[in-house]
Amino acid sequence: MSLLKIGFVSLAALVGATEQLGSIKRQTTQLRSSYDFVIVGAGTSGLTIADRLSQALPSKTVLVVEYGKVENCPGPFDPPTNWLEPADSASRWVFNSLPSTEMKNKTAFVTVGQVVGGSSCINGMFFDRGSRFDYDAWTDAGGPELAGSDVKWDWKGLFPYFKKSVKFTKPSPSVAQKYGYTWDESAYGGSTDINSSYPLFQWADQPVLRDGWEEMGIKPVKECAGGDKEGICWVPASQNPVTGRRSHAGLGHYANVLPRSNYDLLVNHQAIRVVYPKGPQSGAPILEVLSRGDGTKFNITAKAEVIISAGALHTPAILQRSGIGPAAFLRDAGIPLVLDLPGVGSNLQDHSGPPVNFNYTNPPDFFPSPAAMLNATFKADAIAGFNETPARGPYTLSLGNSAIYVSLPHMNPQYATIIAKIRNAVSSGAAASYLPTEYRSLPAMVSGYNAQLLTLADLLSNPQAPNLESPWATSHISPATTVWSFLLHPLSRGTVRLNLTSPLSQPLLDYRMGSNPIDFDLHTTGLRFLRRLLDTPTMKKYGATEVSPGAAIAGDDAALVEYVKDQIILSFQHPCCTAPMLPKGRGGVVGADLKVHGARGLRVADMSVAPLLVGSHTSATAYAIGEKAADIIVKEWKKPGH
């Protein structure tokens, strides 16, 4: 059987087989009268939780409510694309944020999955974890309350769930030798059907940038998923190691775990809000749902819990429609207040950054490079290779799996000046002025932001904690080569708010990039560091000539800040942190047990609960959150009395 057919069999397993089993529901008449657990969102975290709960608690019923439908989920460069432009994708939400005033009114373009599998179905398949220090910072930002909890969310507390969440397949000796792959299997160990593997292909000029980075003094790291990440990393992809196809939650935590008689999925329905008829301490809430098919509304009864896993952009919208959120905003929206939690929809963070662009005057003469995909014969062979067993060729590469991760001390010898600015903003009280206007007079929000900044000051001072990422797959894409500077730990904070003219539509994002001016110090540090690449022997060998920002702009602080504002990408598609796991007195929405403060029978479990953005793409962390959330819930409901 060809791999193309295997891909169709996987899709059939997701559609036809589940329909035969009756797991997929499309109408209220197909639902049970009630469920023990109702999970909102069939995404990365939500399906992980549903899988684990339905397996560990077979006497309990689980329903997942999903806005989208079951679809095939191709990789970002699956055939027939030529790899120089993206392929078709599964359905996605598309957001354009409000203008960011400090970034010359630029808007952030953001997409998230609208499909069974969520954003694991549409992302770039770059499957890395943050450093150990990123997750330790979560606990630090939470203060004594989080540090003293029995449930630990630091690296030690999360690492077992990273391992559990993924099955890593090491490359064959020939592939490993050909590309120089390194790894440490002790960073993995899971048996779940979420796959992690190295691509079976690299462009021939991939080593050019790698050589340049090493000449800059950046050291290769054997394994970057084990907590230590500062250096040059090989990053696995979320792909099947044989077929090269995308591995995602819709397969690994749904289609491939059926049949289970206690596990149902309701597709094509929007979760409107949770309702507490007798108050938020009365028990598990009712979930109000809208059919996207016929427009009818109905209620779903949860006997145990409702778990919201709708992602960093939709989870706060559901909570706000439920009357859980900032009191002043809900009053203006005409929504009756159930719980005053100003942190709902606050604390929005994402990776952003500007580029360094250059041309080669003596370009590396390597074959194949991406330009080879414009050759019909080469492309036909690439498509044929993708359908072989095992797969081979360019279509197994996805977005690439190489990146550098560099700490602030290793980029800027004067880093202490930036750290002092952060600490002085807190001690002087200026930090509060960087928050949205409505939060500047709220002690909890100011306290929480100050705590975050002090935590980030410590994190950024650590020479082992990366604050810049620059990923690459090739060094030779005409007409110019670009190396991107990803700011991994921004200081600015944005918001997610209901659209008051259409509350069931997508919420409004206000990224507020650059609202904390110290972010410009971090952006310019990253640019100046990356420009040093052009002075390496490898780059000089190939006649690398800078296009932008150029020596004149880079030598002028004000001009380089203007370059950042002109060239920055405001979102690298990693939004998070909008229902943060922090004490209520620090603007938190959930505690270490992921229960919403003051609400009984209601939890949140997705990237919205992260207090701080991690120095990685977010998919692997979302899986780990789902695994840990499920473990917390299972342990609680296995206690006597439940």
TrEMBL record:
Residues that bind FAD: 44-45, 115
Domain Glucose-methanol-choline oxidoreductase N-terminal: 311-325
Coiled coil ranges: none
Domain of life: Eukaryota
UniProt keyword list: FAD, Flavoprotein, Signal
Extent of the signal sequence: 1-17
Record flagged with keyword Flavoprotein: yes
Organism: Cercophora newfieldiana
Protein name per Swiss-Prot or TrEMBL: GMC oxidoreductase-like protein
GO terms of molecular function: flavin adenine dinucleotide binding; oxidoreductase activity, acting on CH-OH group of donors
Residues annotated as catalytic: 574, 617
Biological processes, Gene Ontology terms: secondary metabolite biosynthetic process
Pfam families on file: GMC_oxred_C (PF05199), GMC_oxred_N (PF00732)
Known cofactor(s): FAD
